[in-house]
Records
---
Amino acid sequence: MLFRSSDYLFERVWQEKYYEKDNNTIMVHIRHLREKMKDTKKNPNYIKTIYGVGYKIEK
């Protein structure tokens, strides 16, 4: 189980400083991953949004 914030993900993937406006970039990529994994935001199996913290990834 991993907890990752948007700023952590952004800086690790794009190796650039994270700004609040970049949050949409992360959300779009998470949505695409969920689509490919046939996961849903309402009933997630793999990627869960933890409000105020980031994302939780489960197996």
---
Amino acid sequence: MSDFEDRNRSFINQMALDKSMQKVSKDWFNASSRYEYSYHFTWLGRPIIQFPQDMIATQEIIWAVKPDLIIETGIAHGGSLIFYSSMLELIGGSGEVLGIDIDIREHNRIEVEKHPMFKRIKMLQGSSIDDTIVKQVYKLAKTKNRILVVLDSNHTQEHVLKELELYSPLVTKGSYLIVFDTVIEDMPGNSFPDRPWGKGNNPKTAVWEFLKTNSRFFVDKEIENKLLITVAPNGYLKCVRNL
């Protein structure tokens, strides 16, 4: 098995240095975004609004970390919550999923609550950076030993940076803080004309700012090098020590 892993790692490193592969991947990403590619997939019946590549990477992280709590900001249709819950169900144990959203649409709440995987899920409605919500999250997290955090709500630098400051202390050594949609920084400047985020103001710029003063995390480049196509370049942050 070690020979197999070494061979894979060698090819991954080679891909990372292959500028033509990087360009093809970037061009494909930008072309596919015109068709809202990430909206085309479901997990166990619920829209997940993620790239399959990132779903696979997250699955690998969940299996390796075996968290007893996964916190996600941003619920949308609830597909990610169902995905995390099903992974924890396969692992076994008492792992839970906590989803936070400023506006949980009633029809989405109904569909999530009637899903077989809802038994591991809790949802909180409110801003992820609101003090009341944060206190509720910390109350639930205080009995957990291995915590994984995923940020996927408002994509402005100000909001994501605040989330990073608030939720990074919960992430335990060996686990991850995943910041989705860092790719906004790498997309054409006119990609989000009706949104408050864009080049220079997005999750990736928040990560850059966060890492200037936080040494508990590093960007796990091997993940994005392996994926080639991802919405989270510089967004897979591995925790190297506890507080």
---
Amino acid sequence: MKKISMFLAMSIIAAIGLHAQETTMLKVKIQAANVRAEPDLNSAIVKQVKLGTLLESRKKIGVWFEIMITDDKGMPISGYINSGVVDVVSTVGTKPAAGAPQQVAVVSPGGAKPAPQPSPPPVAGIPPRRPSAMIFGRYGLFSPNDENFKSIYGSGSVFGGELRLHVTNGFYLSLAGGVFKKTGALTLTKDETTLTIYPIDAMVVYHFLSGGILPYLGVGGAICKYKEENIIGTVDKWGFGFGFCGGVTARWKSLGVDARVKYTSVKIKPLEDEAGLGGLTLSLAAGVVF
């Protein structure tokens, strides 16, 4: 009987010790906070939690709170969140060490401690991480800068595609190409002339956000393969220059759409005079996001 009493006493003491473990309620104070696999800025991001999300932590390692969250399939996983992106709402449990700032626990009017509130689930179909790659088919309207070019061929449609690869943080490498083909009339003889341009550009693109709407800016190099055929002959050359762009990508699950404004400056010398193949392109795209 004495052994049983001692066992019960030890169980009660252990239970009291577990109950006394400090529980810290946290609230996310930035738009999207990263939860990492380890208490390290270089560790992998396991999830992002939104502004205002309430979290519960029972352990702190340096400037990192250990928390429990659910993954995209609803399974519980542990992770670490930096103290700089959360506010401490309340601390309940053991008394803080001497000199440590005191946190007042928030209680309901009846005196009961508030129940932990689960993190809100992510918006359906939009993963919190940045996409690793995007592939688009693109249609645009090209307006050339060069007045001679414009007087003979005018503006026209460009058909092409784009591959965008994630490099680091919000930076992506964009590789795009297309084809512009028009028929016009030579200025002096009025004979028919056909022009085909294959614009190619490689740009570094920066996405400002990581949710479902991704505005971006980009800058890089531009190349054009130029081929003109008429009664005078055929000219087949390459031109080089630069370009920059701005736009926005919207994604839902693995689908994405994109709207872009791009400006390029490319020079080429088909015969004696130099010609400009650059200009302004307004385009729309649709494709897949990984």
